What we know:
The protein has helices at residues 8-11, 16-38, 44-57, 60-72, 76-80, 99-105, 128-142, 145-149; strands spanning 86-91, 111-116.
Amino acid sequence: MGSAGCGDRCRNARDPAHAVSLRSRVRAGFRQVYDARFIPDGPLETWRAFDELQRLSTTPQNAYRLWGAFGDLDASADAAQLSVPTLILHSKDDQVWSFSEAEELHSLPGSKLVGLDCNNHILRADEPAFGILMREMRKFLATGDAVRTV
């Protein structure tokens, strides 16, 4: 869920100030940045639970380093070499990776792109997009394509 071939630095090569600004915000308050970008439609209780999970999982310094590592990611050339059925599920209004990133990956031979009507990068089980995600995954796995090519 959530698909991209390259990270912030790769995507923002034309606008490096945006990537630097976002990294600064991550360094200053990573949990709040992650809450707002990963679950923008989440109720306050969900944000609090996600915030606590992050607090227990990593330090602000490590979160900043992880964000930087993802920013340096460029797997687009490797992704182009895939020759297996690929299911791409992506929220249409994702705040972490734009839908256009998923559309670029959809150029892979044998890929299927399913746009989910959602703003969240991390889907909640109580939102309609989650049911669609589960249905599409079951259909994809039931075709046997994923099993035959592994």
